[in-house]
Amino acid sequence: MKVVDLMSTDVVTVTPDTGIREAARLMVRHRVSGLPVVEDRLVGIITEADFLRLEVERQERFRAVETVAEVMSGDVVTIAPEATLHEAAKLMADRDVKRLPVVDDEGRLLGVISRSDVVTVFTRPDDVIEDEIREDLLRRVLFVAPDTIDVSVDNGVVVLAGEIGTRTEARLLEELTRRLDGVLRVENRLRWRLDDVDAEGDR
Q1: In Å, how far are 164, 168, 169, 175, 202 from 195, measured between CA atoms?
Q2: What's the CATH number of domain 124-202, 3.30.1390.20, 3.90.1200.10, 3.90.1700.10, 3.30.1340.30?
């Protein structure tokens, strides 16, 4: 699954000239923890952390600010729409951010993907996962008739059974299944008609 499949496109944004109070009202009203700052393209982001820092500076340094431009972070961690969900999750974890603006090659904002969007992947129905294994992996990738392999999915745990052509195909099907969104574990009970893996190289 790609970022474009999960990202939100109805994004609340502000401009650098938006007032601080208006930005705060928008965040509270829409229950979001950050707002992309745009001027034709993405130029920054203002988050709860920026407001926390502003409050400290306001009280301790008597700093007066009026617009988003004075508070926003200009160094924004972004992602492309064609990036994978795994890449988005890893980037959010590595950079410790709650959301990623999705931008095109020109830096134009296309949407936002958040941690909660990633969580939804783990709610994928078992029958959807099973259908993806049968139709996409077996039929279209391995060119194996789906009804020749037993596929069962229970709460994200996939069991593969039956007989497949080669040992390599059995391994490949297991690996591809493991990478599907929503799959927690794969039990490979497949048999193969031909062991095409060199015994010496397999050790």
Answers
A1: 11, 8, 10, 17, 11
A2: 3.30.1340.30
